[in-house]
Specification:
The protein is an all-alpha fold and 185 residues long. It is 73% helix and 0% strand. It is built from 4 helices and no strands.
Length: 185
């Protein structure tokens, strides 16, 4: 069967959000950024104030360094300080987020690999309780129940043996109908 690829307009858009963790990471990042920028501006203010004070009453050119180069140097030091602090902070935040996502995906992947191997045995609760893992566990539980019913119906068919009379054929067709209902569409 030839299927046409869906356009980007039709494709389902899924946004993966973990509000609990993302909210606190965002609040922490914004708070740290505000503190960092405020601290940097305060340090820059005092450093630039000392440069301006040293050159405020200078009427004639003297051997002192040019004020613009001093102000540029102070601004570059402040900017590099922001970068030096921001890069590790963002790296640590990314590492924390990746760790959290992997703590959810690891049990999810394990459960899905069991499904791929048609292993619907009961599992203990996941180490990291999360809505996604809970949904997979619930789905696997319903699939386990469905497979057990399917196994029971197939066992009924095996017990029938030859179908000489109408009663046995009727039971066999009822079992086959039950199996059809249990199988996915």
């Amino acid at each position: 069967m030839n299927t046409m690829p869906q356009s980007n307009f039709i494709k389902r858009r899924i946004v993966y959000v973990d509000d609990k963790v993302q909210k606190w990471l965002l609040i922490t990042l914004i708070t740290l950024e505000i503190l960092l920028v405020s601290g940097t501006l305060w340090v820059l203010y005092w450093q630039m104030d000392s440069v301006v004070e040293a050159n405020l009453f200078r009427v004639h050119f003297s051997g002192k360094p040019n004020i613009y180069s001093l102000l540029l140097e102070i601004a570059l030091i402040g900017l590099s300080g922001l970068v030096v602090i921001n890069v590790p902070m963002l790296w640590i935040t990314g590492w924390m987020w990746e760790r959290h996502v992997n703590s959810i995906l690891k049990p999810f992947r394990e459960l899905m690999s069991k499904v791929e191997a048609l292993d619907f045995s009961e599992d203990a609760a996941a180490h990291t309780p999360h809505k996604v893992v809970d949904l997979v566990l619930a789905w696997r539980h319903t699939e386990r129940q469905r497979m057990l019913k399917l196994r029971t119906e197939i066992a009924k068919l095996n017990g029938l043996g030859e179908l000489p009379d109408a009663e046995a054929r009727h039971r066999a067709s009822a079992s086959l109908e039950a199996i059809r209902e249990l199988l996915p569409d």
